[in-house]
Amino acid sequence: MMRASPARIALYVISALVLVYLIIPVLIIAPISFSSARFLTFPPPSFSLRWYQQYFSNPAWMQATRVTLTVALLTVVIATPFGVAAAYAVSQSKLRIMRLIHMALLLPLVVPIIITAVGIFFVYAKIGLVATMPGLVLANVMLGLPYVVISVLAGLQSFDPAQEMVARSLGMNRLRSFFAVTLPQIKSSVVAGGIFAFISAMDETIVALFISGGQYQPLTKRMFTALRDEIDPTIAAISTLMTAASFMLVLLASARQGKNA
Amino acid sequence: MLALVSPALLVILALIVLPVGWLAWQSVYHDGFTLENYRRVFTEDVYWRTFALTFEISLAVTFIALLLGYPVAYLADSVPKGWSILILSLVVLPFWTSVLVRAYAWLALLQRTGVINQFLRYVDVISEPLALVHNTFGTVVATVHILLPFMVLPLYATMQKIPNDLMQAGASLGASPSLTFMRVFLPLSLPGVLAGCTMVFVLCLGFYITPELLGGGRTVMVSMLVSRNVELYNQFGAASAVAVVLLLSVLAIFFVVSRFISLDRVLGQK
Question: The whole model's pTM is what?
Answer without folding.
Answer: 0.90
